[in-house]
Design brief:
This protein has a domain of about 45 residues. It is about 15% helix and about 5% strand. The protein has a two-stranded antiparallel ribbon with strand order 1-2. The chain is globular.
C-alpha cells in the first residue's frame, strides 16, 4: 500500500488509519496526514505504531517538496 499523496510505502500503522466519519482507509503516510490531521478525525491502531511512526512536528512539513508529486 502506498500513500495517495506522495507514493511512499505505508507502514502497517499508516495503512490501517481510518476516517471517523466515513470509516474508509485514509491511505496517507504520517508526513502527509499531518498536513490534514487538524481537519480529519481518524481512528488509529496504536498497537501497530513503532518509533518511526511518531507524528511529525509542524516544522518537519517545511522539508516536503510537494512540487515533485504533481
Amino acid at each position: 500500500m502506498r500513500c495517495l499523496s506522495c507514493n511512499e510505502i505505508l507502514t502497517d500503522f499508516e495503512a490501517t488509519r481510518k476516517s471517523v466519519s466515513t470509516n474508509e482507509y485514509i491511505d496517507m503516510c504520517n508526513r502527509c496526514f499531518f498536513t490534514i490531521s487538524d481537519d480529519v478525525a481518524a481512528l488509529e491502531r496504536t498497537d501497530l505504531a513503532h518509533d518511526e511512526d511518531d507524528m511529525l512536528h509542524e516544522s518537519d512539513t517545511e522539508e516536503i517538496d510537494f512540487d515533485k508529486y504533481e
